[in-house]
Write a structure and sequence with these properties.
two-stranded antiparallel ribbon; alpha+beta; binds heme C; 186 residues; 24% helix; single chain; five-stranded antiparallel beta sheet; 5 helices
Length: 186
């Protein structure tokens, strides 16, 4: 085999490496020895991607006087930057959904609703190397809850997300900067 062919071969064998490196796990989610997710630090630095009103998971009709909670979706910053660059989620990407009470009393009094107390938080981790479906869902009910076990296999979270989420089990169609990047939704 000529030197040229050898170097072409070497070059092609080496080529996939940078791509593989670029997709290596972000490793931002930290797990306890019992495989529970630690409540992530510095959540206030996560990037807001979406917001919703009265989107709790129940069948009650929406009541404009008592809309329930305001849901705020945030994405871990390195995962967000990776997505904006590659139009894809890196392994280990984390999303947070925080539910705040929709507060009608405010000073100054406004006609609408503002964010009241934090009610609960949910986290979605995308990681094929760790979870069979590539998705894991965690609930943190109390602000002082330190760890959370993943919802068991076949949970309603993953079923709805994979079926209705427009991009890789997430509701990117409702997140303006993400859907613009993907060219989907509104
Ligand atoms: C019936 C469908 C449905 C079910 C069941 C469901 N979700 Fe969601 N989820 C949604 C929708 C719709 C959004 C977008 C919310 C928004 O725009 O604020 C969402 C957004 C999220 C997000 C933000 C990131 C993303 O993936 O888009 C997290 C985190 C999340 N849900 C966690 C959970 C957890 C935990 C459970 C189970 C306890 C669950 N969800 C069950 C419909 C569902």
């Amino acid at each position: 085999m000529s030197i040229l062919r050898l170097s072409v071969l070497a070059c092609c064998l080496l080529l996939p490496l940078p791509a593989a490196l670029a997709q290596s796990n972000l490793n931002i989610a930290q797990y306890s020895t019992a495989n529970e997710l630690w409540y992530p630090p510095s959540l206030d630095g996560w990037i807001q991607t979406g917001a919703s009103l009265g989107s709790e998971y129940n069948d009650k009709p929406f009541d404009a006087q008592h809309p329930g909670t305001i849901g705020v979706v945030q994405m871990e910053p390195t995962a967000y930057r990776y997505f904006m660059e590659h139009k894809a989620y890196a392994e280990g990407t984390m999303f947070l959904l925080s539910f705040y009470r929709a507060e009608s009393k405010s000073d100054p009094q406004l006609p609408g609703f503002v964010q009241g107390a934090l009610v609960s938080q949910e986290i979605h981790v995308l990681d094929k190397s760790r979870f069979d479906t590539g998705h894991a869902f965690f609930i943190f009910q109390k602000p002082d809850q330190q760890t959370s076990a993943a919802m068991p296999p076949g949970n309603p979270c993953v079923v709805c997300h994979v079926e209705h989420g427009k991009f890789n089990g997430t509701f990117a169609q409702f997140y303006p900067t993400l859907r613009a990047q993907l060219g989907i939704g509104k």
